[in-house]
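The protein record quoted for completeness.
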Amino acid sequence: MSGFSQENVESIFAQAGESMSAIADSLNQCFDFQYRLEMGESGVWSPEELGEAFQGPGLVTLFRFGSEAMLGLFPANLPLPDWYSEPGDSQTSRLQTLALEWSMNLIPMDMGDVDEFKTYYVDNLASEVTACAPSDWAALLRINLFSSEEESDGQSPSAVIPVIWPLTKPPVTESVEPEADPAPQPSSSSAAQATPPMAQATPANSNQNPLNRLNKLPVQAIVKLASKKIEMNQLLSICPGSLITFDKPCEDPLDLYINNQVFCQGEAVKIGENFGLKIDRVGFKKEYETKIIEF
């Protein structure tokens, strides 16, 4: 993995310029707005870039390579949607998708795989940048934002989204796996017969696969117990102690949904004090009874 360097700054600028349409689509799908983005003048990062709009709350999108990161800043007056400071499960999934898609459109593939990507809320954007410690040669990419009805010719953008890298002290949220016990040293006789490890020759090729960055994208898994339609008067009469019965037998398999689509089926199991699903079938289509009446 090559990571950030002064040598690949220009390639990041070029990648961003070519991908600006896709970057705008990601932002609009996440926030349900119709923004138009254009690449602004870019160059060397300076703290003076963060004016009054960045002295308050907003969202940060982060892409981390090892101990360094790239940050994109979205101030609250962009404007951001009402839910930005307290996103629910659906909105959190949107923010993670935004981070994934921006990482793919801003960072050239030959730089390798991103170790972590996320979009998160902060109380003060400027303080977050300071805490992350931009390097001495940190670069700045300005993304100019226009509302859908604004014309860019001769007009100032409604807002500027700064993208800064590298940050030398990014927040790391991924869990750290405990170090494995050191392997026993082979004896001199067995060491001579040992086969040289080959795994070290493969990472360079795996970095070229654009799908590798999808592996860390979180998806929501929902297990559906049962469903039924009830009348409004029954709904209004529900109170503590009410009993609602379903036609589904207890021994029937449960459906696990990914993105509102049945992905697999399994049976409920108890794991300690928690509930689990033992998978029986994966990748199937439900069969429905025909509604055609034969004569």
Notes: The first strand starts at residue 35 and ends at 39. The CA atoms of residues 37 and 123 lie 25 Å apart. Residues 174-181, 183-207 have pLDDT under 50 and may be disordered.
